[in-house]
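Methods — Computational structure assignment.
A single polypeptide chain was analysed. Its primary sequence is given first, followed by the predicted tertiary structure written as structure tokens.
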Amino acid sequence: MAAKPASPAALLRAAKRACQDARDGRIDEPLLRELADGGEPLAVAACAQVSLFQGRHREAAAYAARYLRAPSMKATGNLFVDACAIVRAAGDEALTAEAAAGAFAAGNYAGLVEASLRTDRRERALLERATRVDARDDELLRRHEARPDLFDWNATLEVAFALLRAGDRAGAARALDADPRRWPAVDAGQVVPVELATHPALAGLWTPARAAYWLASPRGQ
């Protein structure tokens, strides 16, 4: 007798476990890819993120496009924002058009997906803010140097931007990499901080070595 197919609820539970394994630094466990290749949306979104950090941009964008046409996709969620950023980062017009067409065919917020794949107002605003000199930078950096443990992830991003404005690229990378556990996984399908590889103000700091460090480090605790 053939085995009974797993229910969507059982697949979702398995995907959440696989995503936690990935956040714990165990990215080579086969379950996440198996679930993603079977179409489980949470696993598909997570594989897009992992592939991005592994430098496989076309694969990452293909997974992200698949997530954008998943029936359970929510256009207001963090996974949506990450998926759109991953497709944009690939810089491939054909992939972008394919992702938009897939979301349209699935009836998934087609207009919002199309707009988000082409541009991101939030990203532009963050870039503008990240590069604008702030009179409070010196005080921010002094406080961070004295007690970096008091800074959560969002505050640490502000420190990195301040260091970049001061011309200290190495210091910005060190601040972000000091404790990957500070990065908050807001959604169960978030396994890496996609913004490190896609944010225009930070992308210049990104290297394969840093990507490997993040993938191997427990994070989102």
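Note: The radius of gyration is 18 Å.
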